[in-house]
Amino acid sequence: MKKIIIFVNDYNYFISHKYDALKELDNKKYLFEIFSPHKINYKKSNFYFKPYFIDPLSKNLLKEFYTFFQMFFIILKNKDKIFHYFTIKPILYGSIISKILCINKNLFIFSGLGNILLNPVNSFYKNFIIFLLKISLNSKKHKFIFQNKNDYKFLKINKIIESKNIFFTIGSGLNFKKMPKLKKINKNSLNIIMPCRMKYHKGIMDLIEIAKYFKKSNKNINFFLAGNTKNSNDYINYNYLNSLSKKKDNIKWLKEIKSKKYLYENYDIILILSFYGEGIPRVILESTYYGKTLISYNIPGCKDVIKKNINGYLIKLRDKKSVCITIEMLYKNRLLLNKNSKTARLFAFKNFGIDKVKKVYEKIYLQI
Prior knowledge:
Blueprint: E1 2-7, H1 11-23, E2 30-36, E3 42-44, E4 47-51, H2 61-77, E5 82-86, H3 88-101, E6 106-110, H4 114-118, H5 124-136, E7 143-146, H6 149-157, E8 166-168, E9 190-195, H7 204-215, E10 221-226, H8 238-243, H9 246-249, E11 251-253, H10 260-266, E12 269-272, H11 282-289, E13 293-297, H12 302-305, E14 312-315, H13 320-332, H14 335-339, H15 341-351, H16 354-367
Parallel strand pairs: 1-2, 1-5, 2-4, 5-6, 6-7, 7-8, 9-10, 9-12, 10-11, 12-13, 13-14
Antiparallel strand pairs: 3-4
């Protein structure tokens, strides 16, 4: 039985995006230890969940040293095992530790490079991270999974990776058996929602401006934001979001919507207005499966899977006027919202199945 040590920076993200694909693997062949910032040890089949300290938003040196040395001793203790890292901070620390301890059984998953690396502004922090990644990720024996080719090209152009062991998956995959069935709800209004973390670079302020533009019209269009915020400079202030109202701003913040069923039953158009590339947002996979219409800025990740006449519309980055024109077109011709729903569902079945992701993991684990 192969033992695989996994480091993540968000327990809920791992459960919602990664757990299902790994669960599909033969539980007699693989044993997983997952280290994440949850609070208790527990076991579920061949998965052992263990807590460790990591703060994805922190730049505090003491906190970062604490996380680094925690990871160091976990890795040292399991030096002969396979290591699997999700998201940039575990990837950075794990790759440095692997370099120090001469460990080559590593799988690094880039489900998006994040706004720090993709930001066109050259900050000291960005250049320092790139410098560290160049030193630590250059082993030809490392294995990588990317969700879009732009992220791979960025690391290749910046001479961060030299390995030829490169794999791609279309997002985290969907377990079609677990997707809830929807009831048809008759609505007089057009309901538009943007589900995401309430970060500035997710385009929150762009959507607020778009909603205000439609406030002046007599169209029955409702705008909503859904997702959590945090007490950080990267995030929109909680009190500001909470103050948004239909009457004043023509938009309402719903906080986090945990029910997929509720989300896809009640909303007609899903917006993605992020300024920087995404991996492959899960909301695209789910929206396509349910035949919902997507409107997104033309950014890496989104442009890989959003296709006109299948599941949505791509708009030039920060072109809010074109977003408004597209919404107006769909409002005037509601039949367009459902025109391609069957085609979209078939597209999802063909491309987004969790079995495709499982096969990539299986192929990599067999090679290590």
